[in-house]
Batch of 2 targets.
Target 1
Amino acid sequence: MRRTILAVVGLVLILVGCTNTATEQQPEEQNTEQEQMQQKEDMEMDHGNMEGMEAHMDHDNIPPLQASEGIQKLAIPPLLEKQKGSDFDYDVVAQEGATKFFDGSSTKTYGYNGNLLGPTLRLKEGETVKVKVRNELNEPTTFHWHGLEVPGTEDGGPSDLIQPGESKIVTLKADQPTATLWYHPHPHERTAEQVFKGLAGMLYIDESDVTTDLPNTYGVDDIPLIFQDRLFDKNQQLDYEALMNSDGTIGDISLVNGTLNPKLTVTEPLMRFRILNGANARNYTFRLSNGATFVQIASDGGLLQEPVETDEITLSPSERAEILIDFSALDSNEPIAITDEEGNALLPFDLDLDNRDVTEETESMSWEDNTTFLTEEEKSLSVTKEIELYGMMDMVTINGKKFDPGRIDLRQEQGVSEVWEIYNKPDEMGGMNHPFHIHGTQFKIISRDGEEPDPKEQGLKDSVLIEPGERVRLLVTFPEEGIYMYHCHILEHEDNGMMGQVEVY
Ligand code: C2O
Ligand code: CU
Ligand code: CU
């Protein structure tokens, strides 16, 4: 079957026109008692008080994000350049740096090949590259390729520590469909801090020959968006030890691609955004400020079974979504932004469109998908791996245990599909959401509490948000061998031992 998203884009055009006023009045409308309490709490919770704040992050005390003032140009991570004439193709260096987020101060940060975050590494479907990874930090680190189906030896898990001053060459084979993946450090008990300080980058797998007409000009109509929240101390530093929360460090400052108060000038009518929730712990629900719909085209591991038209997407830490926004029908004088669920503008747009005609581009936009998402046989496979997530703060466990690098928790045969059932066991306080991630695989969600997953989740995934009390079944296949981690991607939970190891043989 040949799928076309032309119809969907057409629908967006119509909906953009008629839902303009939908969300604008949000702030005043719901001044409930709860909100007033929240406001009071917010006032008390200024930076001084939040420093060292150690509390279980239930839903009510998550600090709201400050809206972007739209005064800085959104940074676009540079593309990582191929090395010529060396015995490796790419060079990735973890290093210390400094970043000017605020006027009159400089913040110590970490970055890959720079001061903050890292360059985007683009691999072609089927391509094999050698990457030299080098650690110039003053602490051990690892280089993990989140979502990439590589052998355990190349995966950069916690056992793959690279000491300060050391380097190693890893071989990455992009043997999977086109997708938006990412890379970040993974040293046990240090992951949260190193990511918090700025270590993260995008990793794309590009189609070997372009079979869709999706926008794909990097930085022009195809834009990476790394959303992160940060907490700064009164010296405007990312002092992790002082700021961290063992239930997940959540900040009030929103950064997009490391830019504080960003804005993006849109020059093409049809834009593709590759969104990564790069936060340590915060969940994001993204909307458009005018309530318009957009089209989700991809989940963590690639294109969805079919494009989904929606007015919001929720991503838990480490999840990705690719979306298309059609700006052609929007009035350039009306402010438009990507907002969070509170309506705070996280990324305001400026429109600078010479050409408002999307028809030409979208006419041929389609992709082939001849397969059914899950066969009847796959849906009826019985559960062979049971995972129970439990606890909060530093009492988090998987199947009652904490991570032990010397223990193999599960074994699975290479290339053989098994059904993992993940159960998020509530506690007396109700429990909390855990984003569950498995290395070395792109899985499919079979069901959530027995129900078929939402169309937005009918695509390859490597992380899945699991609510308290929920049971999620995953169809998991490992194409390569080795030892892989599975864990909660609230980075503080991972560091607190909410992680296990599966050996693929
Ligand atoms: Cu984002 Cu264990 O990884
Ligand atoms: Cu991973
Ligand atoms: Cu967790």
Target 2
Amino acid sequence: MAHLLEARDLVRTYQVRRGLLGKPTPVRAVDGVSLTVRPGETLGIVGESGSGKSTLGRMLLGIDAPQGGDVVFEGQAMPEFGTPQWRALRARMQLVYQDPLAALDRRLTIAQQIGEPLDIHKVIPKEHRAARVAELMAAVGLRPDQGGRYPHELSGGQRQRAVIARALASRPKLLVCDEPVSALDVSIQAQVVNMLRDLQDMNNIAMVFISHDLKVVRNIADRVAVMYLGRIVEEASSDVIFKTPLHPYTKALVSSVPVPGKMLEGRVILQGEPPNPANRPSGCAFHPRCSLANDLCRSRVPALLVAGEGRTAACHMVEAPADAVAA
Ligand code: SF4
Ligand code: MG
């Protein structure tokens, strides 16, 4: 099996009302996104808020149903949310959110919650539960005595470790992490990201790592997809994206990431309004903020095309190599 997860042409629309009496109009949060994730690899999804990243993440797990396109996980079409078939898959694909306090039940101890998936998915016999919970806690760097504590008795970083331990309990093959460290102190972020990376390596877990923060993504992703207003505008290996970004939006994002020991030269400041799905510009949606925009950009949507070995970009100014085939 080449792909663990495959998404084709995903579309998700929601209704937005302009003003109190306005007619609800459909707004595309995710607009024709296709991607693949191989076993054990990390796909970073980056973009500003409003780019559709979180909606995409929930669609990849079948929590939000796509209105167009489909998701195939382990060779099987994603079952409808909440059905027994979907719940059966749930053990193998887990979600880690930004806010661990919201993800945890304040009335249950950390150990009780880390063990929950073991009960739900009946992955091990009851008598092995305590040992497995202890193993999971050790794996995420929690002390045994912290198992008896309640969420509010732990720090933010410790809570997120507990959420990650719980997500790993059922031995998933895919983790979708939506801004998993954005709520944590910067000093803690790297620790949690490094821990995630180690756990993922050891257990051969694939990860979709959603973040607005390129510094964090750079540290963990094998490949990076850049989203703007519901579409992928560039995708390549992490090395390639950070060394030679092609799309003007990616260039601006990458240029704002500090590289240790290097001055921020050639920094491109993003001008104009951040993306607003309710107000999609014509043609290339990035054109109001792009210094290269011309008439073609304002009138025609650029297709996501192969722009070199293992990379795609959606920009009229990016030349496709002579031997490229359509993405
Ligand atoms: Fe800029 Fe035009 Fe490329 Fe869009 S298509 S990113 S407006 S150059
Ligand atoms: Mg989000």
